[in-house]
Amino acid sequence: MSELSFPFAAAPRPDGELRDVAPGIKWLRMPLPLALDHINLYLLQDDDGWLIVDTGISDATTRALWQQIFAGPLAGQRITGVLCTHYHYDHAGLAGWLTDTLRVPLYMSHGEYYTLRTLAQAPEPESESQSQSEGLPWQHLEYFQRCGFPAAALDDIHQVLRMASQLVSPPPAAFRRLRHGEALKIGGRPWQLHLGEGHVAEHMLLHNAQDGILLAGDQLLPRITSNVSVLPTEPEADLMGDWLASLGRLAQLPNDPLVLPAHELPYRGLQTRIRQLRAHHGRHFDRLRQLCQARELTAYEATLQLFAQRGQLSPVDRMMALGECLAHLNYLRRRGEIERRLDADGCYRYVPAFNPTDAAGSLSG
Length: 365
Ligand SMILES: [Zn+2]
Prior knowledge:
Elements lengths: L18 E4 L2 E7 L6 E9 L2 E5 L6 H12 L7 E5 L5 H4 L2 H8 L3 E4 H10 L18 H10 L6 H12 L10 E3 L4 E4 L2 E8 L6 E6 L4 E5 L21 H12 L7 E4 L8 H25 L4 H8 L8 H20 L3 E5 L5 E5 L3 H9 L1
Parallel strand pairs: 4-5, 5-6, 6-7, 11-12
Antiparallel strand pairs: 1-2, 2-3, 3-4, 8-9, 9-10, 10-11, 13-14
Helix pairs in contact: 8-10, 9-10
The structure holds zinc ion.
């Protein structure tokens, strides 16, 4: 299997430095206060200025860096709009602030725009005397119970979710819709819009066939695997099915485009990366099949086994890992490979699916 190649040895510093990555495309980084400590943003040359692709989080540092860029390298140049690949706070946290400050339109898919608007509304506990987790909707509490997730970790999670909503400035009151299959002309360069599913519902990727450039957001990162997580808001979702179908569509893109991802470094080797990602999820499926064969278990127990090599996980990492594990379990269940049973303790336990063909075979054999 051929390796990925990285045409740029180093990234721009997350201090407002701009780097040219292709004619009419500039690359910059903003810091993130997380284990993943940066996001890549891009500027696309437009007819009379620059279009911003993704924004960084809403905090004082990122806002100051944007001000510095507008006063420095982009001084005297117009910003024509802001395009967000998806709603996550590192991508769209400053969508509202930028579009309101600059009075420019926001470009986003329908699903992501409205998800951004709901994310900005943090769940509040109903009273001070309540514990944090009691403020969670019953559907979310039920999700964690069905998975066998320890109730003691719920307070931490609730707190982090509220903090995450503070990394988003109030979303813009209007947007311009991006749709799969449509074309978008930016500064004379035609971009084809592609839908990515699984990481979020309506992630947008931009592809220019002529120059061989793919703005990939979080859909095709070179080293880390994007989080594909079944969340309490849609516990039955088949996100891994959506994710793998998206990879199948993206594998059809011609030639070998330069992939501009939202994290890590730009790279070539799209086909290789898609093969690696499929193999990665294939290994997770195999492990989960084995685990269910060995003994019936909850989604949380399966998570601890699946991610055992990562050592002790923080409550939030455990929640992300649980969502990821559930995405794989839902996939196998939808395809009839495993089943789940609701036990008296309120937990689902996963077992191999009863297969009538096997049973018939063993009777006759
Ligand atoms: Zn994301």
